[in-house]
Amino acid sequence: METKNCDACGDEIPLGRLKAIPTTKRCVKCSNVKAKRPVILTLGEGEDTFNETIFLESDDYDKYMEVENKLYKKELLTPINVIEKQLIEKDLGE
Predict the structure, then answer these.
(1) pTM, whole model, 2 decimals?
(2) pLDDT tens for each residue of 1-44
(3) Can you say how many angstroms the Cα of residue 28 is from the centroid of all Cα atoms in its chain?
(4) Please, which of 5, 38, 56, 91 could form a disulfide with 60 given CB 3.0 to 4.6 Å?
(5) DSSP secondary structure letter of residue 26
(6) What is the 3-state secondary structure of 44-72?
(7) Helix (H) or strand (E) holding 41
(8) How many CA atoms lie within 13 A of 19 on its CB side?
(9) Phi and psi for 14 in degrees, rounded to 5?
(10) Do 78 and 86 contact (CB within 8 A), yes or no?
(11) 80: phi > 0 → left, psi -120 to 50 → alpha, else beta; which?
């Protein structure tokens, strides 16, 4: 198999990546594909309630969570918020 260089950085694209994605033009490091993030939806009613998992691009997930948090007026939880909340609850003896 012929080797290729990354269009972005010029480094050689590993053969494994070229075998998996023969038309790729970028190495893994320069790839603009981000990890997908899961959202669990609860659908249906009563006995017919079920969960479905969808996977969103990272940017779409952030937008979805922003809208959902506004809709339900939830506090946007980050690792710092969780730690602060735990410390406050510990201080209050909850």
Answers:
(1) 0.44
(2) 788 999 999 999 999 999 999 999 999 888 877 778 899 999 99
(3) 17
(4) 56
(5) S
(6) CCHHHCEEEEEEEEHHHHHHHHHHHHHHH
(7) strand 36-43
(8) 4
(9) -55, 145
(10) no
(11) alpha
